[in-house]
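Look over this entry.
=====
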Amino acid sequence: MTTIDAYQERCEQLFRAGGNAAVRRAAQEGLDEHGPHPDLYCWLAIGHAAEDEDDHDDRAEEAFRTGLALDDDHLGLLAGYAELCLRADAFDHPDRAARARVLARRLDELAPDSPEAAQVAAAERWERRSYLDEVRMAAGTATVVHATETQARTLEADLRQGAAVPTEDTVDRDAIVRAATLEALSGPWNAPVRFLGRHRTAAWTICGILCVLTNTVLRQTGVVDSFSLWGALWAVPLLIVDRRFTAVRKEAEARHIAALEASFADRR
């Protein structure tokens, strides 16, 4: 029999891997095996809340309330529920939005210096963020290295070194991503995709210049009277490349989560 602690560890690993549905499956499996338990209801709720969709938010609230009925002092449940309520639309869900203050106050009474209280305080600051904060966040995001370019460079290195595809029982995320990329984008017919991916930043810069030049020429020659979208056609190949690499990453993430779930099943 798998213990409650083992199910919690399983849920945590799956959550870090981005497998929200897998978290819900693991938590529900634990509830089916051990019966009602606040820790497992907390993970079930988190698995729903992470989807950030109305239907899942409703199910998350149901799981939070069920867990708190078992243990109304559970810090994880209080913090998770407070975060869910903080992001609720006050117009569509007035009761849920109003409950955030009550939950946060209860958490401060129980454990004001706990990580859960700090987590809720950070969520409250995020909800009160200003326009300037939004601009700063956007600027910070713009400086992050693009995943497509990094993935393309790794792929090129693997092709040069003749990297082997990992075995099916591999659970390392990076190895699975590299294997999926190698499988999907190797071969001479994918050389243009790999080239544009590897030089993505430069390619987008050149694309922007070509778009402006194309529109300038079209206006000067009288083909168009004002700005047109013809110049944007230069971006089509780059968008296709980005979509290819994004699709590979999503497939690799699904493989990673499936491998994790299989490894957990083998331990039973």
